[in-house]
């Protein structure tokens, strides 16, 4: 597969041209372009430039409203509603974030509900700043299009890949660390974007990742794309997928994955879904003595993990924390002499053409 190398600045410029031409308003264009570029910076290929055609398709088809501006409502002492009004989720998340933080620091716990939104991005950007900038523990839950079968036994797509993300603040020598503990994972065996990338590059997928159209497990990503993804860890992943559906759709009043599939006409265009973000302030909610005591306890756990990592390395193995690779990629991208990232020539041409 032929590849080309792009700088982060080139990536952002390509995104802005394509999104603007597709009809997205200026404010959202800036936010989405930065989000895609950050994903590439951090080595998250499945949510980087690969997602740009999907954003543009949603706009060009009329599914997504490119002119929509999110509307934020204060609906309860600990609850914020950000209505994307048929636009994208990331601008709606940012619009409601300041009020979410204010409520969490006032009440100890607060919830941000995002509804009528299209979500193509990684989920970790929705929680990372809450931990890194505001010292909050944050969780996010998002239901998505029906791509995942109920397992064991299911034959058809029932749930979304239904990702969830978690962020916990950490301490540095001069206060809050800009590298909190963060993870973002689908409740499916793998993300659909990763399976699509595998199909494009001719790679196989693990045998427990998907079933084909006949309900049989397959290692062929193309067959899996025609069939259904499987939940991670069998029935345990099914439970988590159900939990995310209940949180993200029931509270926001948005569609469950199966409802969205029934109204989409069977096409591959995106559908609107809900997202729930929970923020907890350790200063008010920690029984051990506020934020500082909480952070001390957090670091005690990570000290133990790091000690285990050193022991594993000495024995010839390796152990890393979730988000550790992301921080390493980010650090490398910020260093002088960074030569950009590789992207397939075909994807590059497609994305450039979207802006012409």
TrEMBL record:
Q: Which Gene3D superfamilies match?
A: 1.10.1530.10, Hypothetical oxidoreductase yiak, domain 2 (3.30.1370.60)
Give the Pfam families listed for this entry: Ldh_2
Family annotation (InterPro entries):
Mal/L-sulf/L-lact_DH-like_ah, Mal/L-sulf/L-lact_DH-like_NADP, Mal/L-sulfo/L-lacto_DH-like_sf, Malate/L-lactate_DH-like
This protein's UniProt keywords: Oxidoreductase
Is-annotated flag, keyword Oxidoreductase?
yes
GO terms of molecular function: oxidoreductase activity
- Specify the superkingdom: Eukaryota
Say yes or no: keyword Oxidoreductase present.
Answer: yes
- Give the UniProt family note: Belongs to the LDH2/MDH2 oxidoreductase family.
What is the protein name for this chain? Uncharacterized protein
| Species for this entry | Effrenium voratum
């Amino acid at each position: 597969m032929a590849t080309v190398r792009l700088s982060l600045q080139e990536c952002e410029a390509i995104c802005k041209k394509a999104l603007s031409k597709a009809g997205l308003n200026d404010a959202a264009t800036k936010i989405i372009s930065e989000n895609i570029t950050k994903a590439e910076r951090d080595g998250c290929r499945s949510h980087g430039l690969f997602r740009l055609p999907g954003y543009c398709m949603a706009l060009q088809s009329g599914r997504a409203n490119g002119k929509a501006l999110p509307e934020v409502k204060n609906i309860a002492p600990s609850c914020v509603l950000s209505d994307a009004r048929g636009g994208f989720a990331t601008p709606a998340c940012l619009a409601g974030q300041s009020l979410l933080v204010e409520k969490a620091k006032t009440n100890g716990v607060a919830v941000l509900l995002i509804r009528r939104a299209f979500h193509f991005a990684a989920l970790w950007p929705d929680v990372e700043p809450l931990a890194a900038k505001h010292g909050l523990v944050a969780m996010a839950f998002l239901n998505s299009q029906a791509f995942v079968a109920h397992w064991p036994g299911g034959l058809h797509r029932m749930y979304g890949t239904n990702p969830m993300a978690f962020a916990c603040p950490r301490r540095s020598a001069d206060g809050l660390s800009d590298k909190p503990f963060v993870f973002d994972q689908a409740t499916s065996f793998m993300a659909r974007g990763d399976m699509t990338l595998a199909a494009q590059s001719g790679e196989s997928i693990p045998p427990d990742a998907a079933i084909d159209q006949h309900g049989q497990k397959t290692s062929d990503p193309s067959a899996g794309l025609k069939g259904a993804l499987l939940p991670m860890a069998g029935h345990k992943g099914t439970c988590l997928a159900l939990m995310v559906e209940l949180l993200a759709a029931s509270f926001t009043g948005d569609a469950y994955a199966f409802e969205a599939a029934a109204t989409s006409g069977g096409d591959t265009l995106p559908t609107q879904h809900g997202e729930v973000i929970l923020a907890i302030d350790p200063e008010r909610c920690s029984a051990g003595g506020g934020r500082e005591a909480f952070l001390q306890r957090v670091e005690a756990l990570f000290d133990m993990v790091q000690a285990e990592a050193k022991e594993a390395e000495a024995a010839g193995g390796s152990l890393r924390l979730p988000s550790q690779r992301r921080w390493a990629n980010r650090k490398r991208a910020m260093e002088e002499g960074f030569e950009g990232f590789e992207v397939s020539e075909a994807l590059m041409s497609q994305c450039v053409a979207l802006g012409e």
